[in-house]
Amino acid sequence: MGLVFCLWRLTLLSLAAILFSPKYCTSQKDDGRKYPFMQNAASAPSVSYYDYIIIGGGTAGCPLAATLSQSHTVLVLERGGSPYGNPNITNLNAFGVPLADTSPFSPAQRFISQDGVVNSRARVLGGGSCLNAGFYTRASPHYVREVGWDGKLVNESYKWVERVVVFQPPMRQWQSAVRDALLEVGVSPYNGFTYDHVYGTKIGGSIFDQNGHRHTAADLLEYANANTITLLLHAIVHRILFTTNKGGSRSRPVAHGVVFKDDHGREHRAYLNQGTSNEIIVSAGALGSPQLLMLSGIGAAHHLREHNINVVLDQPLVGQGMSDNPMNAIFVPSPQPVEVSLIQVVGITNFGSYIEAASGENFNGGSQRDFGMFSPKIGQFSKLPPKQRTPEAIAKAIERMESLDQEAFKGGFILEKIMGPISTGHLELQNTDPNENPIVTFNYFQDPRDLEMCIHGISTIERVINSKAFSPFKYNNMSASMLLNMTANSPVNLLPKHTNTGRSLAQFCRDTVMTIWHYHGGCQVGRVVDSDYKVLGIDALRVIDGSTFNYSPGTNPQATVMMLGRYMGVKILRERLVADETK
Ligand SMILES: Cc1cc2nc3c(=O)[nH]c(=O)nc-3n(C[C@H](O)[C@H](O)[C@H](O)COP(=O)(O)OP(=O)(O)OC[C@H]3O[C@@H](n4cnc5c(N)ncnc54)[C@H](O)[C@@H]3O)c2cc1C
Ligand SMILES: *[C@@H]1O[C@H](CO)[C@@H](O)[C@H](O)[C@H]1NC(C)=O
Ligand SMILES: *[C@@H]1O[C@H](CO)[C@@H](O)[C@H](O)[C@H]1NC(C)=O
Ligand SMILES: *[C@@H]1O[C@H](CO)[C@@H](O)[C@H](O)[C@H]1NC(C)=O
Ligand SMILES: *[C@@H]1O[C@H](CO)[C@@H](O)[C@H](O)[C@H]1NC(C)=O
């Protein structure tokens, strides 16, 4: 479609214009021109005013902005570019291309936690929904009750999201075999195709449509009021500005503006319009939100002073409660070809482990064969324990992968992630540059209950592999030791070796831990924000995104992150209506 568009443009342009702007088609694509209200921050005025300023046009920020724009002026500041017209983002087969690109222009920004696990965060309009594996599944009613959300509005908000961006995935032979195998080993009942979080085996939704085309949180901006919303791309927020409420002894800091820079490095300021209900909302994600609060002076005072940051509020809980659900996976070589698929089937066990699967050799947009979701090119590397995954070791694994025979890629990964998790870590600033990653520690498996869930999960996967239903997709005539040898010789995965070979499942869990990119926390409800997502101790400032979670919702979080954006948008508008009426 992009090409057709470009060719059509070319017929309208003189040859001179083509010669003088060779990147014309590319920049058209980059800007996407999807929405009339979307523009590069470089073209923004140096000072402007809005009712709401949303920092981060990600998975939560987009639905939130679309909702608030129904009756108020809204500015969205997103540090990345547009996902529209970028096949690296929109095609299922290109999953991994942005994650493998470590340049500063990539829609993915790589980070490595102190644990040693390579990870990735979004830098693009639509946020993580532009990079993820697409699996869409709601939180359980139990989770909704525990958090204290209004269940009716939650369901309405999920539906609002689902109408635009969620599809039923096609079920082909390999995913079907995993489904049948899960049922055979007792992960039952079968719940069919459903978004609901219920025990047993089910097929979930996907933000990839039947043609493998990705739909993202940015598509939820179709709901926005084009007359009241302003969306700036390549706008990186450096800090939030505060004044003080003149409330006598009860004076509190009030957020009233932000400082951001465009891609020419020029500084701009945006302020809230006068009016007591206007607010700044941080939706910069689990790394970005706590980082930005700290850069703005909200954090542990001693830590902020180390970086010469003026302390607005001494709040040691900012950056605490960081968690990443550990993921462990087994690669199963198949005698017959398997379809390319990301996550479609999930087994929801009653011991806190979720079994999912991804299959098929994945070209990752290039000519090289690749392990897709488990490729060392994107930093997934379970061959060595986390602390030994040096850049050199990963480079060597990529080299080995590229020299592998085609046969080696035939097969699929069966993974498990644990719920929660219970183990938590923390986040600190590395420096005061908002473009750089903060330092983050997740403490995978620090709590023994997390390890127990992993061990249970891996033994379930072993039973899945040995089931009758899965037998067409594994080499029956190969001995376990041969299979082990095969996987052990591929650059990524190991089959678990049991105690008879000196390695326990617990050790397997620790040594092969990877991320499923569901990291969350840092601005948790009850610690940094209240149950209305208002930052404790500060006026006119909220945080709404995955950084507020105490536990990851559902088997995978994106449904609930998008839902939360919509849900809070509606709640804020309702509260405001009441407040304005009582004035
Ligand atoms: C590779 C990958 C695979 C995944 N697979 C799945 C899956 O299959 N199913 C599922 O449910 N979940 C999946 N997830 C998780 C899910 O996508 C995330 O949990 C979710 O997107 C997080 O949303 P968020 O709004 O909290 O943050 P984000 O979506 O990351 O949004 C934050 C936004 O803020 C912007 N930002 C940050 N700092 C600043 C700043 N200073 N100024 C301006 N803008 C800023 C960022 O560029 C970003 O766009 C996956 C994630 C990844 C990365
Ligand atoms: C897609 O990714 C490749 C590899 O990182 C990069 O060279 C190319 O410019 C990207 N395309 C777009 C449209 O961003
Ligand atoms: C919300 O929907 C789920 C099914 O998706 C249902 O189980 C639950 O009862 C609903 N909650 C309310 C409050 O309607
Ligand atoms: C296993 O069976 C396949 C096909 O039936 C065959 O090609 C292969 O050589 C066999 N492998 C071994 C180790 O026997
Ligand atoms: C294991 O793999 C190595 C390297 O590919 C090979 O040399 C060896 O013969 C294999 N051993 C078995 C038992 O298959």
TrEMBL record:
Keywords: Disulfide bond, FAD, Flavoprotein, Signal. PANTHER family: OS04G0573100 PROTEIN (PTHR45968:SF3), OSJNBA0019K04.7 PROTEIN (PTHR45968). It comes from Vicia faba. Disulfide bonds join 454-509. Residues 1-27 form the signal peptide. The keyword Ribonucleoprotein does not apply. The lineage of its organism: Eukaryota, Viridiplantae, Streptophyta, Embryophyta, Tracheophyta. The keyword Flavoprotein applies. Belongs to the GMC oxidoreductase family. GO terms for molecular function: flavin adenine dinucleotide binding; oxidoreductase activity, acting on CH-OH group of donors. This is Glucose-methanol-choline oxidoreductase N-terminal domain-containing protein. FAD binds at residues 78-79, 124, 237, 517-518, 546, 557-558. Its cofactor is FAD. It comes from the Eukaryota. Residues 285-299 form the Glucose-methanol-choline oxidoreductase N-terminal domain.
